[in-house]
Amino acid sequence: MSFLRKLMVTAAFSAAMFVNAAYAENVKIALVVKSLGNGFFDAANKGAEEAAKELGDVDIIYTGPTKATAEAQIEVVNSLIAQKVNAIAISANDADALVPALKKAMERGITVISWDSGVAPEGRQLHLNPSDTGLIGETIIKLAADYLPEGGDVAILSASSTATNQNAWIDAAKKILPEKFPKINLVATVYGDDDSAKSTDEAKGLLKSYPNLKAIIAPTTVGVVAAAQVVTDENLIGKVNVTGLALPSEFKKFIDNGSSQAVALWNPIDLGYSAVYLAYDVAVKKEEAKPGATLSIGRVGKVTLDDTNSAAMAPPFQFDKTNIEKFSKIY
Ligand code: RAM
C-alpha cells in the first residue's frame, strides 16, 4: 500500500473510531456548586443524579471549591474545560468574574448554563432561577414581619458579598420594604460567605452591635443555621427570631426549639434535576436557548426563557412547626 493510501485508511479508521467513541460515551454534565459541604447543594445533586438516571446517557460530575469564592470556581471551570466535559451547569459565586472562563468553555463547544446563582448573560447560554426574584425578596421580609406586629430592627446575614442570587433577593427586599413593611427597620447587612464559622461570627457581631435586634434574616441555608445556633447558645430564644431560607432537614431543630418561627425554601432536588435537564436540552437535543423558547425539565414540566434567557421555577414554600417534620425527611 502506498504511503498516501495508508495514511488515508488510517485517517478514515480514526474518524470512525472517533464517531463511535462520541456515541459510546455518556454525556458529561458538570454540576458546579458555590462550595462543597453545603447540604443545599448536596440535595441539588440528588436531583441531578435522578435526572441522569432518567435520561440514561448522562454522567454527573458534582464539583466545586471548598470555599465559596469566584477565584476558586474559575480553577474548577478550567479543569472541567481540560477534561472536555459536554456541559457545565454552575451556581456562581460572582456574576462577572466567571465570565472569561465560561466564555472559554463555550468557545470550546461546551454548553454553559447557570442555575441558583447566575452568571452575566455573556457568560452562559441560559439561567434557571429557583423562583421569581421579587417574590423571594418579599418573602424573606414577610417571614420576619409576620412575627413582628409592632415592627422593629432586623438585620440580614447573607452568603458572600458577590453572590448573584442573595444580592438580587436583598435588593428586591430593600425595594419593597418602605412601602409594604414600613414598621420593619433594616439596620445592617453582613456576609458570612456560606461558611459556618464566619456566619457564626457575623451573627454574634450583629447581636452585639444591635441590642434591640428583633430578627435576623438569613437568605442562605448555611447562614440561617449558624444564626439560629447563636441565638440558641446566647439564650435569646423569644427575643430574636431567626428566619430566612433554610433546608428543613438541617433546620427542623431550630423550629422545634423556638429560635425560629418560620422559614422558606423551594425544592433543591427539583432545582438540580431541572438544571441537568436544561443542560441536556441544549447540549444534546440542540434546543436553542433564545428568548421565548420553551424547554423541557422532565417531570418538573417546562420553562420559557425571558428576554435575558432566564427562567424561574416555583414559588418558595413556607415551613413552620406544622409541616417542617414532613419536609425534613425529604430535603
Ligand atoms: C445557600 C446558597 C445557595 C442558596 C441557598 C438558599 O445554600 O447560598 O446559593 O440558594 O443558600
Automatic annotation (TrEMBL):
<feature type="signal peptide">
    <location>
        <begin position="1"/>
        <end position="24"/>
    </location>
</feature>
<dbReference type="InterPro" id="IPR050555">
    <property type="entry name" value="Bact_Solute-Bind_Prot2"/>
</dbReference>
<dbReference type="GO" id="GO:0030288">
    <property type="term" value="C:outer membrane-bounded periplasmic space"/>
</dbReference>
<keyword id="KW-0732">Signal</keyword>
<dbReference type="GO" id="GO:0030246">
    <property type="term" value="F:carbohydrate binding"/>
</dbReference>
<dbReference type="InterPro" id="IPR013459">
    <property type="entry name" value="RhaS"/>
</dbReference>
<dbReference type="InterPro" id="IPR025997">
    <property type="entry name" value="SBP_2_dom"/>
</dbReference>
<dbReference type="GO" id="GO:0015762">
    <property type="term" value="P:rhamnose transmembrane transport"/>
</dbReference>
<protein>
    <submittedName>
        <fullName>AI2 transporter periplasmic-binding component of ABC superfamily</fullName>
    </submittedName>
</protein>
<feature type="domain" description="Periplasmic binding protein">
    <location>
        <begin position="29"/>
        <end position="286"/>
    </location>
</feature>
<dbReference type="InterPro" id="IPR028082">
    <property type="entry name" value="Peripla_BP_I"/>
</dbReference>
<dbReference type="Pfam" id="PF13407">
    <property type="entry name" value="Peripla_BP_4"/>
</dbReference>
<comment type="similarity">
    <text>Belongs to the bacterial solute-binding protein 2 family.</text>
</comment>
